[in-house]
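Task 17 of the worksheet. Students: predict the tertiary structure of the chain below and write it out as structure tokens. Keep your answer in the requested format; marks are given for formatting as well as content.
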Amino acid sequence: MLEAAKGLVLKQTKYSETSLIVSIFTFEHGKRSYIIGSVRGAKKNKTMQYFTPGSYVLFTAFEHRRSNLHRIKEIEFVQVFHSVLESVQKSAVVMFMVEMLSKILKENFTDHDLFNLLISFFELLDTENKRTHYMLYLFLVRLAKYQGFYPHGKYSVETPVFDLQGGTFRADFPIHNQYVQGENAEHLSNLFVMNIEEFEQLSLGSAARLELLDSLLAFYKLHFEGVANLKSFEVLKKIYF
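Model answer:
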């Protein structure tokens, strides 16, 4: 059956001499895998541009009910995020976002609200010209909420320790070593209650920002096994820290 869908490209993998297998988070079906033929080879093929991770595309595909791999027939852009393509800093943020999504999203699990949230993030990043690195924190905080492991409680003098494993702020240290404390715990607590305008006003030094991002990723790693090795994170550190 031929169906139309729109989605964000998450990942592409070479398949045979001329084909690609592409992972796309679609509005209609959630994350799905698609194959597209005759796009690789000696001659430059303009179709390849649609499969860059982070592309927002509209396509028609032959949906195979008995297979997890569907074949794309036609494709075009829904929207092009021009400033993201032109900025090394913004591109690094997008690569981080799509790699994270490709690892934690489940196949064929539809989530319209999450899809719309992600598109709004890409649009915001495309128009933002200052402090784009803080979009990383906003993205991770909002994504955690949608994935159902939002922290319980908040930092205070009485609860100065954040248990990364249990996801709670507490008065004492847990029996394991998966926790943060002090200013880092306070910054983490603040992140989860900030709105977009407050994120734009966030001001931390490079060392504090890196420690905070490390803590957020540690929080994710305890809930999603695939997050352990993010190649894009190493690129981010070279650019932003």
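Marker's comment: The helical segments are 82-86, 88-104, 112-127, 134-147, 182-191, 196-201, 206-221, 231-240. The CA atoms of residues 83 and 129 lie 9 Å apart.
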